[in-house]
Amino acid sequence: MSLGQTIRTLRQRRGMSQSELAEGICTQSEISRIENDLVLPQLNTLKKIAARLGVTLYELSEGSEESSQRIETLRRIHRYVRQQKWQELAALLDEEEQSAASREPFFRAALTWARAVVVMEAEEKPHRAITLLHNLLHKMVPLTLALQGQVEMTLGDALLRTAQPEEARHILERAFHRMESAPSQYEPWVPVRTAYLLSLAHWQLQQATRSLYWAETALELADAHDLSYLVGQAHLQAAVVLAHTGRSAEAHRHLEKAACAARLTDDASLQAEIAQWEGMLFAQRQNS
């Protein structure tokens, strides 16, 4: 029995309608697509569906070995992206793209998003990543809200790397407001990263006030979900904006917090960048 068939069977046994199962989790139409195996739900969504049906995530997926394997693959993809393990992610994609499961439309779309991340991060080809992501958004692929948000977040990142901040800002703001309206549909790190990228976009557009607003928004969200590995980046971005607007004391406080987060996560790259800014701030205060 497939994952979708399992969910339909459990729902019907409990006398639930699709709209009752979907309430507060996703839309009724998404439940319909899941039950018809047109999409594989986001892990967050699947956990909530399992809880409402009164079963564990394992019990929900154990009836279909293929579904279980896809869920585990998606979990690994997300873990590698969060941990910035690009070589491991590339190897996983090479393996999965040769499997029969990759023919399933949603799973193939998720693999394409992850491949775009590898192309941008490991191969340093953001223009190629933009092409992959644009194709993904404009094809008739049944993307869930969660996957659409991840695609738009990554597209915004790639556009920033190719000096297209206005287009990036437009896409990222649209994505973030959709995330705000349905937060349960997204993995917590996605809106945090989106807010951080919005800060970078406004900074490239020379809009310091808006850049600081989005850096602080990223910090609030990261703190709320205890995402320490994203806190350091957001504190550093806030420090950069404050330093350039002459608020060196506030900038220094953010740098200290960024340094603490970088030590906790053992992020050598972030530590080096913080040290550079600490030197610049020291010189700025000496001159003043």
From TrEMBL:
Residues 7-60 form the HTH cro/C1-type domain. CDD domains: HTH_XRE. Signal peptide: none annotated. One of its GO terms (molecular function) is DNA binding. SMART domains: HTH_XRE (SM00530). Pfam families: HTH_3. InterPro entries: Cro/C1-type_HTH, HTH-type_regulator_Rgg, Lambda_DNA-bd_dom_sf, TPR-like_helical_dom_sf. This is Transcriptional regulator. It comes from Calditerricola satsumensis. The lineage of its organism: Bacteria, Bacillati, Bacillota, Bacilli, Bacillales.
